[in-house]
Amino acid sequence: MSELINNYQSGYSLGQSFYTNDDIYQKEIENIFLKHWIFVGHASQIPEHGDFFLFEFDQESIIITRTKTGEINALLNVCRHRGSHICLEKKGNTKSLICPYHAWSYNLDGKLLAARNMNDDFDKSANGLHRVHLELIGGLIFISLAEKPLSLKSMQADLKDTFDLFGFDKMKLIKQNTYHIRANWKLAVENYQECYHCTPSHREYSEIHAAALPPAKRNQHLEAYLKTKTNAVRTRSCDCYFDLANEGEEGYQYSREPLLPGMKSGTAGGIAASRLLGNITDYDGAASDLMIGPLSFFLIYDDHMVGYRFMPLSIANCVCDLFWFVHEAAEEGKDYDLKELTWLWDLTTQADEEIVANNQKGVNSHFYRPGKLSEMEGFHQHFLNWYLKVLKP
Amino acid sequence: MSELINNYQSGYSLGQSFYTNDDIYQKEIENIFLKHWIFVGHASQIPEHGDFFLFEFDQESIIITRTKTGEINALLNVCRHRGSHICLEKKGNTKSLICPYHAWSYNLDGKLLAARNMNDDFDKSANGLHRVHLELIGGLIFISLAEKPLSLKSMQADLKDTFDLFGFDKMKLIKQNTYHIRANWKLAVENYQECYHCTPSHREYSEIHAAALPPAKRNQHLEAYLKTKTNAVRTRSCDCYFDLANEGEEGYQYSREPLLPGMKSGTAGGIAASRLLGNITDYDGAASDLMIGPLSFFLIYDDHMVGYRFMPLSIANCVCDLFWFVHEAAEEGKDYDLKELTWLWDLTTQADEEIVANNQKGVNSHFYRPGKLSEMEGFHQHFLNWYLKVLKP
Amino acid sequence: MSELINNYQSGYSLGQSFYTNDDIYQKEIENIFLKHWIFVGHASQIPEHGDFFLFEFDQESIIITRTKTGEINALLNVCRHRGSHICLEKKGNTKSLICPYHAWSYNLDGKLLAARNMNDDFDKSANGLHRVHLELIGGLIFISLAEKPLSLKSMQADLKDTFDLFGFDKMKLIKQNTYHIRANWKLAVENYQECYHCTPSHREYSEIHAAALPPAKRNQHLEAYLKTKTNAVRTRSCDCYFDLANEGEEGYQYSREPLLPGMKSGTAGGIAASRLLGNITDYDGAASDLMIGPLSFFLIYDDHMVGYRFMPLSIANCVCDLFWFVHEAAEEGKDYDLKELTWLWDLTTQADEEIVANNQKGVNSHFYRPGKLSEMEGFHQHFLNWYLKVLKP
After folding, report:
1. Which of C198, C366, C379 to mutate to test the interface with B (most CBs of B within 10 A)?
2. Among residues C86, C69, C68, which one has the least CA distance to residue C77?
3. What is the pTM of this model?
4. Which terminus of chain C is less hemmed in, N or C, by CB atoms within 10 Å?
5. Do A178 and A324 fall into the same domain?
6. Among B192, B358, B363, the residue to mutate for chain A (most A Cβ within 10 A)
7. B200 → closest Cβ in A76, A82, A100
8. What are the tens digits of pLDDT across the range B358-388?
9. Domain-embedded: residue B22
10. Which among B186, B242, B154, B157 is positioned nearest to B21, based on CA atoms?
11. B64 lies in which domain range?
């Protein structure tokens, strides 16, 4: 693997083995998916004591619960007796977690409450459910399966004002959709990192967002936007993402990108989609890109937010989950139309499903060789640099 | 593998690798499924000359035939020419076994009868079908694929009176059902070894059988039963199972277990299910557990018998076959109702299908660790001890 | 692998590993499927400038195109940017090949025409599509993925008259059918090499072709045929196939085989199927076997030709493609009936699908051992000799 990593030539795509070798996939599970912070949902999904939902990927199943004291917990869905899954429903409300196999029962914070017919030397306190690190970012729930997770402190301090501006803790999730992609997860993440493909592949997106333009034109739009808009919290730019993250910290990124003239939001014709978010008082003809950790991305329009999360199912299959958020006070039918609001990114992600699967097919060929990246694939290059770094033994 | 085996801690469940590592699975095929005795059916299934049925598992297919002299044979369903399967029907009647590919034909005891256009130096007598060891236990057919199988002599001598009492050779098979379990075969066998899960998972069973009670209560029932019943052949107990088997012999076990008060048989409400078996003259409110070899189990009620057999399909999938037997003279509609008679164990095995699949899901987690067994999992512990012993290089 | 190869005993079938070991399969891909010449179609399928079709197997996809100058090209369907498949349709007509991902566009001979937003140091001339060797044999299109392919010169010189006689470049493809076989590709090819199985498995074929007869009888028919027919181009015999091929050359074979008395063509009752091919002026009651390379076979009746091609999908699955050709001037409904003309080999190949899958099942058994071949499996033996030779490291 060291040899493969060292052979990588900057400015080019990755070699085939990174997309097809199962040992590399196992290393990725260990070094990326069991280490880094992952977005799993929003506090608004479990408002009441006893509410829970499952987050599942690869071989893992994690229960996100709300306790009596209002605390949110993440617990491995694996009974400490003989390992059965405990929660079989994807979401619900329960007083305690009772394993359906032998009826061991656990509190909503994972403490073992009862286990029948165990010998006297059995220590209940040592047999609680495995707890998973959890952090709330605004109302967004992130987990890390690492023993000692990367720090989120600088990010939380750095972006607090921004989270407040957009009212992250005053949103509600109105739709989640799962897209199955017949490709290695990296091809899906790489696809999301670059807008070189937007013009040929995403006509609808390209009619709304300036990011689809060639660099020179896009920069003109960006400079013009920044000259007229002066809200420092809204228009700032943080570049601590991927290989640019500080040692020991989770990577993150924030920037504001202009829409095309006349566009207010990510909808057909760029018309307004819902109530303005948080403390936003006006449309400024732009949208923010936010990234927290390597797998979770958010596109913040002034009146709604779209979240993306990429997770593997196997070396050759992954899923992209999309999450649509609006102001918690927005009402369907009155403030927003669900179909209009989800139209752009549902359509775009369906197109990406096909694009990325066709990329995998070619990468599988014995004759595929890494190709030269364009000048519109710089963000993508940072992903590759980071990836090779975290893979190192 | 030695390290994995040595790391096992008694009183705990097995580590993950035993359920997920394909090398271990191949070792199991060699040391367990190609060695130990396996129940394949009952002589009553092939009463006439030329009758046959197939027994299939993993990559193997075995033809069980009845010859002209009435003998029962087990033959590999693999042509000695280029290896084609010969019998394609699951059961039937035939004069000889003719390979559909090149028409080599074999006698019902496997002798090669004819092979067209072979050179003169071809030795027909050296090209019969591979014969598999077969033993009749009462009318029950067992096979072993070992070159030199474990001895069944002590077992046959020890349990002869019991087989006679229940009339094993005067039964008939009235139904066989296959249950596909999305789990490693061991999780299915372990599930069958313990009644710790009966109360939470099998309400219907628990309302009929005393074995679902906690140990102290169950022992009260057992002692009361043994005090009033004195048929030594019926109430005996043999503990030569799993790691308790004698060197060079196949393991076996027999014991009589009380039903709950008022229950006669394994039916809804515990009512009688069919004619009394063999030489049985009265219901005694109990049922016998019989195990022959590590994969075949029988639950003998006074009026019918249920057989279970566990076989792997792959490391992550197995099948449980259930067999229902009644007295050979019993008539459907008059002596028994098929639906009533099969109700309890069909229902219970369907529940186990789900339970065991959910166990596998949790065992697959990177965070699964072996857990402490309860005092109701002693039989299960013997299975684990035996398993680790036979796996040793 | 060397040990496995050296252990092979001539006159017997291959050992199990050759059909089940994935390392061997990878070696086969390299040494056979990425080296040898493969039949992919006929020039008549792409008559116009811009016409193309795809040839796909294992992980490879190859575009066969007709350029403005009328030349036929074979190009890897893998974009030189990040590896996406370019052509997604199985066939069609296009001015240029435009990758749907980032819109890199290529000429029909593979030259890179345009790539947006690349840095100045990007060399377009070094980023054309990977070209695959292609050779026209009559109008039959063959490709080789080897860097330096085996020579076809002797074959082309040797068989030119024969190709002319049957008018290979004046045919048209009227039907292609794909048969999925649940077996290793070698079992399918071996099946095609021997007529030992014809009598038991292919009644319809055996009622038309003398090749199904035992050797002595078949030779009588052959001698009688050769005595009365004297067209040297039609009745010749070339044996440069498999292990008999000359060093550095691709193997090939041609021979003329009699039909049974009264039969004119490969149809029900042996009746005429279509217009006579090429310069053929009469039915001579025979058909020719032609083999070019190890995977492509042709059966040439006087009035139509059937092509076969065997390609792997994975170690345990393969496809057989059948191609039916008639004289380019033949008209459906008037000169031929498609159903009548395709009847025999569609039926026969469907039967082979089952036969070969049942062969694989038995070969998978732990108890399968190589078996002795018959005297009717000599051609098959040449395949085995060649196979073991090309597999050698």
Report:
1. C366
2. C86
3. 0.93
4. C
5. yes
6. B358
7. A100
8. 999 999 999 999 999 999 999 999 999 999 9
9. no
10. B186
11. 38-135
